[in-house]
């Protein structure tokens, strides 16, 4: 599922680090209607879920990975694993379970 496939009621906001990959954040806001916030430099506690998720992604794609060599299928497998991994912050539910709960609430 992509961000554009989500129900508008579920698109609330996104928080990012101040890095070059977010240079076009206005385009994301325009395309999704989501507000984008940026964490202050050296303030990782402002985006704890991001930091945790980055660590989980690095288990599959370590620093130095050439992303030109990663297939869409490989990315989908990693996405599926992460979306089906229980998270303490959401009561040991998976992100997929939480999105399904949210979808039922807004239906």
TrEMBL record:
Top-level taxon in the UniProt lineage: Bacteria
Matching InterPro entries: Integrase_cat-core, RNaseH-like_sf, RNaseH_sf, Transposase-Integrase, Transposase_IS30-like
One annotated GO molecular function: transposase activity
GO CC term (a single one): cytosol
UniProt record, GO biological process: DNA integration; transposition
Limits of the Integrase catalytic domain: 1-103
Bilayer-crossing regions: none
NCBIfam families, per database record: transpos_IS30
Name recorded for this polypeptide: Integrase catalytic domain-containing protein
Organism name: Polaribacter filamentus
């Amino acid at each position: 599922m992509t961000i554009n496939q989500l129900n508008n009621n579920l698109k609330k906001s996104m928080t990012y680090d101040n890095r070059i990959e977010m240079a076009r954040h206005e385009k994301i806001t325009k395309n999704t209607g989501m507000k984008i916030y940026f964490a202050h430099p050296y303030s990782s506690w402002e985006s704890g879920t991001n930091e945790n998720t980055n660590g989980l992604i690095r288990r599959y794609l370590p620093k130095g990975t050439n992303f030109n060599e990663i297939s869409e299928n490989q990315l989908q497998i990693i996405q599926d694993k992460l979306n089906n991994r229980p998270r303490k912050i959401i009561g040991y539910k998976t992100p997929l379970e939480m999105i399904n709960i949210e979808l039922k609430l807004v239906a």
